[in-house]
Amino acid sequence: MEEIINKLNREGFKTASIAKRAISMTIDDILISLVVVLAFSSQFANAKTYEDVLILTNELFGYIFVAYTLYHWIFIAVYGKTIGKMVTKTRVIDIQTFDNPTWGRALIRSVMRNFDEMFFYLGMAYAIVDPLNRTIHDIVGKTVVVED
Hints:
9 helices; mainly alpha; elongated; 67% helix; 148 residues; membrane; two-stranded antiparallel sheet
């Protein structure tokens, strides 16, 4: 851990705050949710009650999981940041190369992020105790979120 901190400092990187990460995550979640609702707008329009919306969301789980995974995977692999991270001026870097994560690492990070969300963001709560503010999906993906 200390070795990573020393390397980040030597390269001039500052880890992103938990607040910036939370704002970024909220922006991304809202954007992806809007895309899903628009893509399935006719089904959501037919939902009459809150229970109908919950049932529809449950039926669309696979599509939602794929949408979230693709969004995070592609944006992180290509740009090192999602739209939420662009707004908060943060980015994801590989802890070994200090560049954008590889496609493989970005995919692992994206899938793990989805599982973190499914389990009440417990994996994300780890950032509170990690010196680099990393979540479980950052640790598994061998990444860290830094100021851009």
